[in-house]
Amino acid sequence: MAIRQKSRMEIVCKRELGSIENIFAFINTFVLEHHLSEATSYALGLAIEEIYVNMVRYNLGNPNDIMIQLRADQDKVVVTLTDSDVEPFDITKFTPKSLDRPLAEREPGGLGIHLVRAFMDEVDYEYENRQSRITLTKYLGKANV
Amino acid sequence: MFEIRRCEEGIVLSGRFDASQVERAREVFDEVTEACLVDFEALSYISSGGLGLLLGTEKRLREKGQQLTLKHMSSHIREVFQYAGLDMIFRIE
After folding, report:
1. Which of B20, B59, B89 sits opposite A18 (nearest CB)?
2. For A3-144, which CATH superfamily applies?
3. C or N: which end of chain B has fewer Cβ atoms within 10 Å?
4. A81, A48 contact by CB (below 8 A)
5. Do A50 and B48 touch (CB under 8 A)?
6. Is A143 part of the contact surface with chain B (CB cutoff 8 Å)?
7. What share of chain A in percent tops pLDDT 90?
């Protein structure tokens, strides 16, 4: 399915897990407006939540809000999460521990980033002027049928 | 909206199990001390926070020779378990 009209939506969120409710309402509005599938909706929700929660947890004392932008463009949806006044953390270079280890050796750490990579088609990271920007792209192929 | 409740068979989950609901769910899972069924039928979403809680509970139970049984999982949630490599760890019906 292709999106005929370009459009962009953004939300600015307080750095707290309580913002997740508003973030899902924001994603749902975007999904309905663009007639995206349930699978695409799940992928967007999961990827945005995982990145957002990482930004909250690893910069708890930071007073700045986090900006999430959703953009629909032809055959893809592009998500951007921007966090200000933070140390760099390039998630594209993060290697989660192997997921095929036995239960006793499994730890939840890194699972979120692994799921983001699995559910999104492209993950990009930029860091400039102490600002981290993570861009996630989901192509609307079979997953949006 | 996320709901978690105990029933005769085990635990019933419903709605969206995101990171903001993990501590609430932990209070219920921490009380599980023996084999337990977890019904996913009305659950629409789970992320790594919920998976981590299930993983921790499973580890604790296995040390006692017990385990969780997860049932009625939607295709999207099953896919999350597969990508996370957890479909090989949990008993899923």
Report:
1. B20
2. Histidine kinase-like ATPase, C-terminal domain (3.30.565.10)
3. N
4. yes
5. yes
6. no
7. 74
